[in-house]
Amino acid sequence: MSWREAATYWIQFQVTGARYRQSMQTGFRPLGTFGLDQTGTCGLCGVYGRLSVTHVPPHGAGNDQAAATMGTRADEGLARVQPGTYRDGGVWKWLLCEVCNMKVGRYDEEFIRWWRMLWERWSDKTVPKPGAVGILNFTMAKPGAFIRSVLGGMFAMNPHLRPRYPDVAEAILRDDPVAMPSDLRLQMSLFFHGFRYVIGQTMVGVSAPDFSSITSLNVEGEWAWPPFCLALVDPNGSDWRAGAMDISEWMLETSQVVRDVKVKLGVLGADELYMSRFQNEA
Ligand SMILES: [Zn+2]
């Protein structure tokens, strides 16, 4: 099975070396209820009201397959992190108001274009192994649109971001240039694997039954979305991945700037994902 076929299915989800098949829903508890309500606070403009269906990543970037919400299930006294029931329609939640959703939608075409280009380039070939470095050229690219599509989705998925970084939210919506703060950087890597996920909450904590170990994910957002992995991190509080490229400076350009973009990206293994730091056993 090629990586492309493998990526078509969520076969298994690997967390900290343990594999969990989709199992009975008895006792399953979602990690949160964020994004399940049609009314709430928009992650970009901050207005409370009616929300719209928000696909993260964009629907056209392969985000139309069966997806499941992560949660825990008590199993012999241990809280295991695992996906819940798979449903068609990709990864989406009620996150952005309709106006903001449409504004971010203007940028999505560029993300989809990059995603598709890489997907097709490697779909029938042997993919680079973890630790390798891929050098890629995107001609006639719009890096300012690409990064706004990504950050728009990350702000949608993480309600803590807009209150802390209102100027970045504004710059996404208004297509203004902005210097990203030093404690909020977007890192980009390559990732080829049979599973994919999106997380958007700061510091997801999983505690062991006896509270002897608590794991925090020090990441504001992560898309493990083959062939990309994109993570929004504070470099001061989180180790920077080897080979990851800091693409934050693309926010200094508007979405209209067209140029050739050369990127040098390390290839991640599954054990390097932030999600893999969930601990399931005490
Ligand atoms: Zn809004």
Helices and strands in order:
Layout: H1 3-7, E1 13-15, E2 18-20, E3 28-30, E4 39-41, E5 48-50, E6 52-55, E7 70-75, E8 78-83, E9 92-96, H2 98-122, E10 133-141, H3 143-157, H4 161-164, H5 166-174, E11 185-191, E12 197-199, E13 205-207, E14 214-216, E15 221-225, E16 228-233, E17 245-246, E18 259-268
Parallel strand pairs: 11-18
Antiparallel strand pairs: 1-2, 3-7, 4-5, 6-9, 7-8, 10-18, 11-16, 11-17, 12-15, 13-14, 15-16
Helix pairs in contact: 2-3
Report what the structure shows.
- The chain is an alpha+beta fold and 282 residues long.
- It has one domain.
- The protein is built from five helices and 18 strands.
- The strands form six sheets. Strands 10, 11, 12, 15, 16, 17 and 18 form a seven-stranded mixed sheet that branches.
- It is globular.
- The N terminus is likely disordered.
- Bound molecules: zinc ion.
